[in-house]
C-alpha cells in the first residue's frame, strides 16, 4: 500500500498553463500581470479592500508589524501554541512577545489570558487562527477597542475560514497569509498582507520593495526589504483561486470522513465551535491521553501514514523562553496529532487512516 503524506498540493486547473505563460513571455520576476490579478482575486475573495503579495508568510508578518510601527519597547501578545514564525517576526522588530494560553475546545488564543497579560507597554495582539479554526473575533475586537491595541491576525493557516460569515484577516489592522506548499492555496512559497487602512497598505507596498521613492530612480527613503512575490508564484496562486471551491469542498469531505470514522474513540476531532467556518487546513485529533501520542504516531508511520505533532509551545524554545505555566497550550501540544489533510485524499485513504488509527489505539490499550 502506498505511503500517505500529511499534505500534497492540489495543482489542477490552469497552474501549468499560467506558469508556461510566464516562461514564454519572460515575465518570471516580480513584475507581470499575474501579480495584480492574484492580489485582486485574493482581496475580492476575502472581502478586503486590497492585498499585497510577498515572498512567504513569515515576511508577511514582519512587514505588517513594521508597517504598523511595532518596534523596540513594544509588547505584542501572542499565543504560545503557534508556529514559531509568529514569534520570530515579533522578535525581529525588536518588540517583545508576551505569551498567553489557549482554549481547550477550539485550540485558539484565550481572550481571558490576553486580558491578564496587558501592560502599559502592550501595543498589539496577534491572534493566530490555528489549523484553520477562527479565533473568537468578537472577544478579541472588544479587547482591542477597550485598551486601544492594534491587531495583527496571523491567518497563515486560515485561508477560507470565516467568523460570522466574514473572512478572517478582515478584522485586524493588518493580517497575513501563507501559501507554502502545504497550505489550502499554495504558490510554492508565498504570502499575502491585508491592511485595514490605505495608509498601512501603502507602507507595506513601499517597504516590501526596498523603500524606493515614487519620484526618483534608485532613491530609497526608508530602511526596507525585498519581500516581493514572483509572477510565477502569482500565476500558480491565481490558478489555485480559480479551483478554490473544489479544494474547499474536498477538504471538508476529508474532515467529515475523520469525524465519522473516528467517533467514539478516546480522542476528539477539531470541529468548528461557534459562528465559524473552519477551513480544516489541518484535520487534527486531540487524544484524551498524551501518553499515547508518540506511540500512535509511530504505529501510523509504520503503516505508511505520515502525521505531524502539534507545535511545541513557543515559550519553551531556547531563543524565546519565557516564564508562565500556560497549562492548556502545554497539554494540547502534547496530545495533538495532525492527520493527512490534503484535498486529493480519497475515501479509501481516509478509511485506511481511520482503521489504522483505531488498531493503534487498541494495541496501546487506550
Ligand atoms: C501560524 C503560521 N504563521 C506563519 C507561518 C509562516 O509562513 P511561511 O512558511 O510561508 O513563511 C506559518 C507557516 O506554516 C504558520 O503556520
Quick one: biggest sheet?
Answer: 7 strands, mixed
Helix amount: 25-40%
What topology, given as strand order, has the largest sheet? Answer: 1-9-8-5-4-2-3
**Class from helix and strand fractions:** alpha/beta
Instruction: Report the principal-axis shape.
Output: globular
Rg of Cα set: 21 Å
Overall pLDDT metric: 98
End-to-end distance, in Å?
Answer: 26 Å
Number of helices, where a helix is a run of at least 4 consecutive DSSP H or I residues: 12
Bound molecules: pyridoxal-5'-phosphate
**Percent range for β-strand residues:** 5-15%
Low-confidence spans: none
Helix-strand sequence: HHEHEHEHEHEEEEEHHHEEEHEHEH
SSE topology:
Elements: H1 15-25, H2 33-46, E1 51-54, H3 57-67, E2 75-79, H4 84-92, E3 96-100, H5 111-117, E4 122-125, H6 137-147, E5 150-154, E6 162-163, E7 166-167, E8 174-178, E9 191-195, H7 198-207, H8 231-242, H9 244-261, E10 267-269, E11 276-277, E12 283-287, H10 293-302, E13 308-309, H11 327-335, E14 336-339, H12 347-363
The structure holds pyridoxal-5'-phosphate.
Can you give keywords for this protein?
366 residues, alpha/beta, 7-stranded mixed sheet, 4-stranded antiparallel sheet, 38% helix, 14% strand, binds pyridoxal-5'-phosphate
What does this structure look like?
This protein is an alpha/beta fold. The strands form 3 sheets. It has a 7-stranded mixed sheet with strand order 1-9-8-5-4-2-3, with helices on both faces. The protein has a 4-stranded antiparallel sheet with strand order 10-12-14-13. The chain has a 3-stranded antiparallel sheet with strand order 7-6-11, with no helix packed on it. Strand 2, helix 4 and strand 3 form a beta-alpha-beta unit. The longest helix is centred in the C-terminal third of the chain and has 18 residues. The two termini are 26 Å apart. It binds pyridoxal-5'-phosphate. The site of pyridoxal-5'-phosphate (PLP) has 14 residues, from helix 3 and helix 4.
Amino acid at each position: 500500500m502506498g505511503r500517505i503524506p500529511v499534505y500534497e498540493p492540489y495543482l489542477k486547473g490552469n497552474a501549468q498553463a499560467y506558469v508556461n505563460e510566464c516562461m514564454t513571455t519572460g515575465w518570471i520576476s516580480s513584475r507581470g500581470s499575474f501579480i495584480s490579478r492574484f492580489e485582486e482575486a485574493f482581496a475580492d475573495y476575502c472581502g478586503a479592500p486590497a492585498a499585497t503579495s510577498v515572498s512567504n508568510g513569515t515576511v508577511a508578518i514582519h512587514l505588517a508589524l513594521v508597517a504598523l510601527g511595532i518596534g523596540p519597547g513594544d509588547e505584542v501578545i501572542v499565543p504560545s501554541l503557534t508556529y514559531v514564525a509568529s514569534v520570530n517576526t515579533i522578535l525581529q522588530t525588536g518588540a517583545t512577545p508576551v505569551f498567553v494560553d489557549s482554549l481547550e475546545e477550539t485550540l485558539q488564543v484565550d481572550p481571558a489570558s490576553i486580558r491578564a497579560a496587558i501592560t502599559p507597554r502592550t501595543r498589539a495582539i496577534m491572534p493566530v487562527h490555528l489549523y484553520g479554526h477562527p479565533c473568537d473575533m468578537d472577544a478579541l475586537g472588544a479587547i482591542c477597542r477597550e485598551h486601544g491595541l492594534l491587531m495583527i491576525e496571523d491567518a497563515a493557516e486560515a485561508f477560507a475560514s470565516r467568523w460570522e460569515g466574514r473572512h478572517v484577516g478582515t478584522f485586524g489592522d493588518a493580517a497575513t497569509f501563507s501559501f507554502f506548499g502545504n497550505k489550502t492555496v499554495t504558490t510554492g512559497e508565498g504570502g499575502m498582507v491585508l491592511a485595514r487602512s490605505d495608509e498601512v497598505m501603502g507602507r507595506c507596498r513601499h517597504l516590501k520593495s526596498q523603500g524606493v521613492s515614487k519620484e526618483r530612480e534608485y532613491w530609497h527613503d526608508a530602511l526596507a526589504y525585498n519581500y516581493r512575490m514572483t509572477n510565477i508564484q502569482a500565476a500558480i496562486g491565481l490558478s489555485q483561486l480559480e479551483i478554490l471551491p473544489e479544494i474547499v469542498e474536498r477538504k471538508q469531505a476529508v474532515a467529515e470522513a475523520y469525524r465519522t470514522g473516528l467517533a467514539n474513540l478516546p480522542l476528539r476531532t477539531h470541529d468548528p465551535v461557534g459562528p465559524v467556518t473552519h477551513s480544516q487546513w489541518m484535520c487534527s485529533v486531540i487524544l484524551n491521553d498524551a501518553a499515547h501520542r508518540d506511540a500512535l504516531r509511530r504505529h501510523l508511520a509504520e503503516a505508511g501514514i505520515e502525521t505531524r505533532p502539534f507545535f511545541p509551545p513557543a515559550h519553551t524554545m531556547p531563543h524565546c523562553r519565557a516564564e508562565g505555566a500556560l497549562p492548556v497550550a502545554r497539554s494540547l501540544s502534547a496530545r495533538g496529532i495532525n492527520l493527512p489533510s490534503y484535498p486529493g485524499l480519497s475515501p479509501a485513504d481516509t478509511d485506511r487512516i481511520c482503521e489504522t488509527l483505531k488498531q493503534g489505539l487498541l494495541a496501546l490499550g487506550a
